[in-house]
Amino acid sequence: MTELVFPLYNVHMPEAEYTNDQYEIRIELLEGAEEFENQRRENGSEYAHGYWHTANAYIDQPIEEAKNIIDVLSQILSFALNRDVRFNGYYEGDDPDAPFLTMSICKFDIDNTNLKLIHGVPGGQSNPGVRIGPFLDTALDTVLSANEGAKKQKMRTISQFLEATAVNFASTKFIILWMALESSANQNYTEYREAMGDLFTDDEIEWVIGTVLRSLESGLSDKQLDVLEYRFNKRYLYEHSAAVKIKIYLEYLDIGFDMDEIEEIIQHSREIRNVVVHESDGSPIIDNTERLVELRKIVIFVILRKLGIGKEFQERLITPQIMGPDIS
Disulfide-capable partner of 66 in 24, 61, 253, 271 (CB 3.0 to 4.6 Å)? Predict the structure, then answer.
């Protein structure tokens, strides 16, 4: 099997080389990587924007599997480095003159000046320094070993976070982050309901529908009653609210948030979401920018859980100070 080489753009790691034997991946930084990292946040730096070839990824897998791996890897790195890490194709073998096969890749318009979200984890006495390798190992295995549906859900949340990072309007950022959180909570609620049972039994739902229809039948036509019956049979009407589903989900993730504070944040954020979506009015988020900051932090830690980073590993990660609700 021929090793495939994927040029990577905007990558920097604490270590010069990352190797994952399980999935036969190797990332090597190129000569210009350190200059890119050292200058990307300087005023007027050319590295602040655009795409810079700073590394190569080598994957010794069949072509389709290698494409799947590099797509997952680039999105995990984009999240960790808080900028758009991308590839645009590959060539076979270690010959740079080999034909380059281009690929159409999603692009997030994020500049390169952001602080990294994940610096890495500290090494031990035998291997001092900071390495991002342990984080990548855990994240890659969590995603790549998941079934196709679960993998798509994990990657969708990262893509939503990157999309929110790329857009300029606060109200749009807020809605995308809310979508990422609510959809994740909805996915979890399915498992929660299977374990805990439905909020209402089928008999209770049937009783509610029948009682309502009987109370209205004298004043409505048969067609109107049919429409009401159809609407009252929607299952989501008999589930917890979106805000409660999110609270259930965050309690399950055990990130370390104060849940009373989280409840206040989510309830207010839901009110803001309703105004932004239903009235096309972005002023509530302009007047309450702290809610955007808090929502961003919550989604960051939701993604960490989706990447297999449990509480113990979370405490080992070296990250910048992320503004938002406190974590104990």
Answer: 61
